[in-house]
Design brief:
coiled coil, mainly alpha
Length: 147
């Protein structure tokens, strides 16, 4: 009968516990954390790592400066419309105003939002015209500028 002594021997780690540098008597192996902590990246870091940021910069570089400013203004207007729409929703849900006053405030807010939407339409037309004048016909650039 043969006995396998490896089964009964204690298990050893493949990674040595300490590797000492003979000159400095310090451990050259980096300390390993007892628990792996997940790495959290911000949206900006994710965009940078995915290459979205570089792609956006290339697309913007393809546009003349005056068109870039128009596109930025378009983005600002769209963001402002979203904010105003949220305020309108809160106003509609609010019970802190009398009904007549609330109706008037809602009407004013709707008119303001509609005016900004008209500005978006006009600015979009102006961007299209400016792109035509600049001779930019690449559909990808056109879509990105107007999206």
């Amino acid at each position: 009968m043969s006995v396998n002594f490896l089964i009964h021997s204690p298990a050893r780690s493949a990674i040595p516990e300490k590797v000492l540098d003979p000159d400095t008597e310090k451990s050259s192996q980096a300390e390993q954390p007892s628990q792996a902590q997940p790495v959290r990246l911000s949206e900006e870091e994710m965009a940078k790592l995915s290459g979205e940021e570089a792609k956006k910069e290339q697309d913007e570089a393809a546009l003349p400066e005056h068109i870039q400013k128009m596109v930025e203004k378009l983005e600002e207007l769209r963001e402002k419309i979203k904010e105003e729409q949220e305020l309108l929703d809160k106003l509609k849900a609010s019970d802190s105003y009398p009904e007549e006053m609330k109706a008037e405030l809602v009407t004013q807010k709707l008119e303001y939002i509609m005016a900004m939407q008209n500005q978006v339409i006009e600015l979009t037309k102006n961007i299209q015209d400016a792109l035509k004048e600049a001779g930019i016909t690449d559909p990808g650039i056109l879509l990105k500028a107007l999206a």
